[in-house]
Structures are given as structure tokens and as C-alpha cells.
Design goal:
By secondary structure, the chain is of the alpha/beta class. The chain contains six helices and seven strands, in the order αβαββαβααβββα. A seven-stranded mixed β-sheet has the order 1-7-6-3-4-5-2.
């Protein structure tokens, strides 16, 4: 029977403990942070809609330019980005709407999973510039139930992100960062 070298045995055990501690360290750190009360958050750029609202259950009517009514509860898993213009939507408002439509295009193959709904009077010069009807479905909030999210500043626009079951997820008040909206859309539209 061969004798085991105690020095080699100690080195082998130390290597094993070192490898085990490398794998255990992240778990111990995560447990310590959790016990200390810290939890990571996935912070979006929009503001959460509180209290939670479901436009389909509330039967919130948006009358479309083509005569129909907007279906909040979608048959497919598609989100809706609702643009709500302030008074006198003009050049700046149109720029923000263009950035919002661009955020949809940047979803590439997933852009069909996001519907764009514009609720209000279209920008004054949108007809001359064209493109508005190419990306946006146009409607009106005849009952004023979306008024709390509509900005009061002239030539501005706010937005709402609505789930395919009609639940409002986040609001983007006037002056929101369009690139932040694009980041949020990249996270939720998959």
C-alpha cells in the first residue's frame, strides 16, 4: 500500500476549497444583500400607472377616424403605444411622434407586436409632411377618460403603454426621453 504524502493531500484539499469558494461567493453575497433588504430593480423610463387601470374592462371608448372603435383587448399579444397630444400640437409634437414611430421601427422583426394609437387632433402640418397615417391609427377620446395623461403644455405629447389585455402599464409625461421609451419597448416587446 502506498503512503499518502500529507503535504500533497493538504494542497489538494486547499485547491478543492478554493474552487468551492469561487462558486459559493456569489450565492453568499446575494443572500447577504437580500437579508440586508436590497433587491435589484428593473427600472423603466416610464412612470407606473397607479392605481392599475384596464381600459378594456372599463370599456373606455376611442372612436377611430374610419368609424370604428379601438379594441383595447387585442386578439394577438401586441402592446399599444398611445400618443396623447397637448393643445396646439405642431412641429415639436410631430418630432416626438416621429421619434415614437422610429422606436417602433427599431423593434425590427417585432415591430408588428406594437400598435401605435394617436388620440386627438393631428398636428397642424402633419398632412403636408405625410407619414402620420402610415404609422399611426387616429382616434378621439370623446368621453375625455384619457385626460389625466394628456399634457397641458402647448405643442407637447405624452404617451401610455398598454398591454394587449387593455391594462395600462406605464405613462410617459410630456418631455419624456424618446430614447428611454425605445429602451423600454426593447425590454417589453419580444
Amino acid at each position: 500500500m502506498n503512503a499518502v504524502d500529507p503535504v500533497a493531500l493538504r494542497k489538494s484539499r486547499m485547491k478543492l476549497l478554493l474552487v468551492a469558494s469561487i462558486f459559493a461567493a456569489p450565492l453568499v453575497l446575494a443572500m447577504a444583500l437580500t437579508l440586508a433588504g436590497w433587491q435589484p430593480t428593473a427600472k423603466g423610463n416610464g412612470l407606473p400607472v397607479t392605481p392599475q387601470r384596464n381600459f378594456a374592462q372599463e370599456q373606455l371608448p376611442v372612436h377611430m377616424a374610419d368609424g370604428g372603435t379601438w379594441a383595447w383587448h387585442d386578439s394577438e399579444p401586441r402592446l399599444t403605444l398611445v400618443a396623447l397630444p397637448g393643445p396646439g400640437c405642431a412641429a415639436h409634437c410631430y418630432e416626438v411622434l416621429t421619434a415614437m414611430a422610429k422606436a417602433r421601427v427599431m423593434l425590427n422583426r417585432n415591430q408588428s407586436r406594437l400598435r401605435l394609437l394617436y388620440v386627438g387632433t393631428p398636428p397642424a402640418d402633419a398632412a403636408q409632411r405625410g407619414g402620420m397615417a402610415n404609422y399611426w391609427k387616429l382616434g378621439t377620446d370623446t368621453d375625455g377618460k384619457l385626460a389625466q395623461w394628456r399634457p397641458q403644455q402647448p405643442d407637447s405629447v405624452g404617451a401610455l403603454l398598454v398591454e394587449s389585455d387593455g391594462t395600462a402599464l406605464a405613462s410617459y409625461p410630456a418631455g419624456f426621453d424618446a430614447s428611454g421609451l425605445a429602451q423600454d419597448l426593447q425590454k417589453v416587446v419580444k
